[in-house]
Amino acid sequence: MKTLDPLKVDSYDYYLPPSLIAKEPANPPDSAKLLVYDRKKDSVTHTIFKELGSFLPKNTHIIFNNTKVIKARIFGKKSSGGKVELLLNRPLKNHTFSVFIRGKVKPKTILLFDLGLKAKVISLEEDGSRVVEFYLQEKKIGFEGLLHILDKIGHIPLPPYIDREDKKEDETNYQPLFAQKAGAVAAPTASLHFTKELLEKIKKEFDTKFVTLHVGAGTFKPVETENIIEHKMHSEYYEIPKDTQKLIDSEAKILAVGTTVTRTVEHYTKTKKPLGECDLFLNPLNPPRRVNHILTNFHLPKSTLIMLVASFIGVEKTIELYKLAIEKKYRFYSYGDAMLIL
User: Fold this and answer.
1) Residue 2, burial from CB neighbour count under 10 angstroms (0-12, 13-18, 19+)
2) Other CB atoms within 10 Å distance of the CB of residue 39
3) Which pLDDT score, from 0 to 100, does residue 127 have?
4) What angle (nearest 5°) sits at the alpha carbon of residue 67, between those of residues 210 and 185?
5) How many CA atoms lie within 13 A of 275 on its CB side?
6) Which pLDDT does position 220 carry in this prediction?
7) Going by DSSP bridges, is the β-strand pair 254-257/293-297 parallel, antiparallel, or unpaired?
8) Residues with Cβ < 8 Å from 182, sequence gap 6 or more?
9) Residue 299 in 3-state DSSP?
10) Local structure of residue 313 (DSSP, 8 states)
11) Within the chain, which residues score under 70 in pLDDT?
12) Which among 275, 184, 241 has a CA at the least distance from the CA of 63?
């Protein structure tokens, strides 16, 4: 195998047969495949997710992300009549919001949605997002008011590669069992494999804690700079409760369930800030210092997420394991199978 340069974006590329992109979750979720990679032994085990607990060292502490996916996609029209699709990204200051809008819109454009919801475009941003204000019956509304409306008229924001309309089942399937705090527009997908029974079993055997990181649409943004260090990382709101801070501040072994938990824990380790904005870009040149083990899905080529995996095991081993997973017909991306790195 040729030597891969961890600085070069092309080193994180691989070919995935379209048939291996999961359009639906495994049923039941814990029947998904699990690839276990043990760094000390340099060994690979193929198993199923239900067996997760039997591979974790006894004194492992597990951290989950309890963010809740909101119905962030809405369909409407411009006041001039053309159709629009809007994806809420995140709330900003002064009751303004970052959104992505499919179709051309200029500042001051008014967008009309069901139940009297309106959006006024304030500005166009460099990353392709728009800043908007939302109004209900001509009154400006904040995040809580908007959530109430989105629950009624919104759609679960399935990632573009799932390439189908959302269904009623996605409201459950694309949401972790322990989701509590509304604000994500993409699911922390490593969590989607847990069934109620498996979660109860894991909680009996291991100490579990939570962080909140509201996953933004930027999580799907590919790295477009040739040198990955030049990539401008997106930012997401996070908060860490006191009991989880105490765990992170200790020397106990931690399993991060997903890339979002990994970034949150590592950001706190560096800054000691229990809440704020996380824009940490983990990669082989900026490896994790605190997380011992990671549970994660298989990610898009040239994405910051595959680079995060490589921050644990190097780019060459990452591509080697991805090619093995493809050979073994693992299912990829949000509704796909999982990998445990010990």
Assistant:
1) exposed
2) 13
3) 81
4) 155
5) 6
6) 79
7) parallel
8) 67, 68, 70, 147
9) coil
10) H
11) 1
12) 241
Task: Please measure the distance between the N-terminal and C-terminal CA atoms of the chain and give it in whole angstroms.
Answer: 24
- State residue 1's pLDDT score: 58
Q: Is the dihedral of CA 232, 233, 237, 238 positive or negative?
A: negative
Distance CA 126, CA 30 (A): 41
Give the model's pLDDT for residue 218. Answer: 81
Q: Identify the structural domains of the chain with CATH numbers, from first to last.
A: 9-69+169-341 (3.40.1780.10), 73-154 (2.40.10.240)
The whole-angstrom separation of Cα 267 and Cα 202 is 26
- Neighbouring C-beta atoms of residue 131, cutoff 10 Å: 17
Closest CA to 112 of 136, 145, 78: 78
Residues facing residue 295 across a β-bridge: 257, 340
Residues 25-34: pLDDT tens digits?
Answer: 999 999 999 9
What DSSP letter does each residue of 275-294 carry, written as one string? EEEE----BTTB--SS--EE
CA torsion 177→180→186→192, rounded to 10°? -10
